[in-house]
């Protein structure tokens, strides 16, 4: 499991439960932005990555650069990922939290400690100067900025470092061989899959052992045909939205467009569109099959190329495209699914001035440009270049919105997860049809939500 994937799993599971980056309670005023003067003392920064890993080494190099800019300041790096997370939480509860912490989850978590006032409110800090006459907030992509707020109040829980997005990767050689162009609509995508199948080429690589990855197809189709708010409300996920959803929770089966989404999914995953044996194929094997040319496309996170770098043939030509739009769909056509990997400051940080300046330093154009070129990271900042193949995604960050990966389902109960995943898996496996899937999901969601 790569770091991007691990972050999501930890965030929506452990981090949601632990509330590591819980924001200040609604009654707390925004924390005044500290004025950076001569920084001194010690700044403690948490790394999710252990020593002797590329991203830990990157953080150590940045620490040295930051120290060189501020005589008298020492940056200490503390491991806080995996087994290192519980000790960090213990320190939060004891009032001894590290100054800077990765939020890990792509958004500010709605953990049980969200009213504990454990995280510094960055609202005022984002209004501070960021160079070139603009504010820090002005430097951030609009779709990214929308992800930085608390879910329960007006505070700002984190600043961005990078962005994870879900999109299609495709084999350029296979597309060229069959005279295919990048699909722009869902109908185009279905026609492309049909053309590939008729030519003896499997269209999609999918893992059948991890329901959340199959869910990515469903989530995008619901986003395009139905819309994020209605789908989230039907799931029972008002707790993972920033604004209360008005009205009574609707039945999934009653949502306009839901059956269009289900029927499109059935057409996409019909017999012969997915690699044989996918039911027992894990995500690594599915990704390997894609890079070996066994399938023409895979829907995956932006971490794919860096994760599989050692296994990609030298002559492999990978292309990317955003999930196509639904012609006439009632949902969100310019929204991408993903999340922000952010940095937060502890409310009781011992060196808040240095912590704020560290977050701003991480966002500087040269730091972000290096991150993009060396690690293929998608920046949350406007000035950073897009990694090769992600230009369209960066355009969407500038012009559209971002929807939380898995629609917050990782933080939901096992009953709600099963209400989506079990019928969805049955459809992928050809055991039920589109209408039956919607009926089962709707009934089970209703039961799970009481």
In a nutshell, what does this entry contain?
The chain is of the alpha/beta class.
Give the helix/strand layout:
Elements: H1 3-18, E1 41-47, H2 54-69, E2 73-79, H3 85-93, E3 100-102, H4 142-145, E4 159-171, H5 172-177, H6 186-198, E5 202-204, H7 211-225, H8 228-235, H9 258-268, H10 283-291, E6 295-301, H11 304-307, E7 318-321, E8 335-345, H12 352-362, H13 365-375, E9 378-379, H14 391-399, E10 401-404, H15 414-428, H16 434-448
Parallel strand pairs: 1-2, 5-6, 8-10
Antiparallel strand pairs: 3-8, 4-6, 4-7, 4-8, 4-9
Measured distance between first and last alpha carbons: 35 Å
Q: Tally the structural domains.
A: 2
Instruction: Classify the helix fraction into a percent range.
Output: 25-40%
CATH architecture of the largest domain: 3-Layer(aba) Sandwich
- The CATH C-level name of the largest domain is Alpha Beta
Please summarize the sheet with the most strands: 8 strands, mixed
What name is given to the CATH topology of the largest domain?
D-Maltodextrin-Binding Protein, domain 2
Q: Which class best fits the helix and strand makeup?
A: alpha/beta
Shape: globular
> Average pLDDT, to the nearest integer?
86
Beta-strand percent range: 5-15%
Question: Helical stretch count?
Answer: 16
Listing every helix as H and every strand as E from the N terminus to the C terminus, the arrangement reads HEHEHEHEHHEHHHHEHEEHHEHEHH
Q: How many β-strand stretches?
A: 10
Low-confidence stretches: 1-28, 109-114, 238-242
> CATH-wise, what's the superfamily of the largest domain?
Periplasmic binding protein-like II
What's the gyration radius in Å? 22 Å
């Amino acid at each position: 499991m790569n770091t991007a994937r691990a972050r999501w799993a930890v965030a929506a599971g452990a981090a949601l439960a632990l509330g590591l980056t819980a924001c200040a309670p609604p009654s707390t005023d925004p924390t005044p932005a500290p004025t950076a003067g001569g920084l001194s003392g010690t700044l403690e920064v948490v790394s999710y990555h252990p020593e002797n890993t590329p991203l830990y080494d990157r953080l150590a190099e940045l620490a040295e650069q930051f120290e060189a800019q501020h005589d008298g300041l020492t940056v200490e790096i503390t491991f806080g990922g995996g087994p290192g997370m519980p000790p960090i939480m213990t320190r939060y509860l004891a009032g001894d939290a590290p100054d800077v912490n990765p939020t890990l989850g792509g958004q500010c978590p709605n953990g049980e400690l969200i009213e504990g006032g454990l995280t510094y409110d960055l609202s005022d800090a984002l209004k501070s100067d960021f160079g070139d006459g603009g504010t820090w907030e002005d430097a951030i992509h609009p779709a990214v900025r929308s992800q930085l707020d608390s879910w329960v109040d007006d505070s700002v829980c984190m600043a961005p470092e990078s962005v994870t997005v879900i999109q299609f990767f495709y084999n350029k050689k296979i597309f060229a061989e069959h005279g295919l162009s990048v699909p722009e609509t869902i109908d185009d995508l279905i026609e492309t899959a049909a053309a590939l199948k008729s030519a003896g080429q499997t269209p999609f690589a999918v893992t059948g052992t991890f329901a959340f990855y199959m869910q990515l197809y469903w989530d995008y189709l619901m986003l395009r045909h139905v819309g994020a708010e209605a789908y989230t409300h039907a799931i029972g996920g008002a707790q993972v939205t920033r604004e209360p959803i008005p009205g009574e929770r609707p039945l999934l089966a009653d949502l306009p467009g839901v059956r269009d989404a289900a029927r499109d999914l059935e057409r996409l995953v019909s017999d012969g569109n997915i690699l044989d044996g996918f039911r027992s194929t894990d995500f690594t094997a599915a990704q390997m099959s894609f890079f070996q040319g066994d399938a023409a496309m895979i829907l995956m996170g932006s971490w794919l190329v860096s994760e599989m770098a050692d296994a990609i043939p030298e002559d492999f030509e990978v292309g990317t495209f955003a999930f196509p739009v639904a012609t006439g769909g009632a949902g969100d056509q310019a929204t991408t699914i993903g999340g922000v990997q952010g940095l937060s400051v502890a409310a009781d940080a011992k060196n808040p001035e240095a912590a704020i300046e560290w977050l701003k330093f991480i966002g500087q154009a040269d730091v972000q440009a290096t991150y993009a070129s060396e690690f293929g990271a998608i920046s949350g900042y406007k000035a950073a270049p897009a990694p090769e193949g992600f230009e369209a995604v960066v355009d969407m960050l500038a012009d559209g919105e971002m929807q939380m990966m898995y629609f917050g389902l990782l933080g939901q109960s096992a009953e709600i997860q099963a209400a989506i995943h079990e019928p969805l898996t049955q459809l992928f496996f050809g055991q039920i049809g589109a209408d039956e899937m919607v009926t089962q999901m709707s009934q089970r969601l209703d039961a799970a939500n009481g």
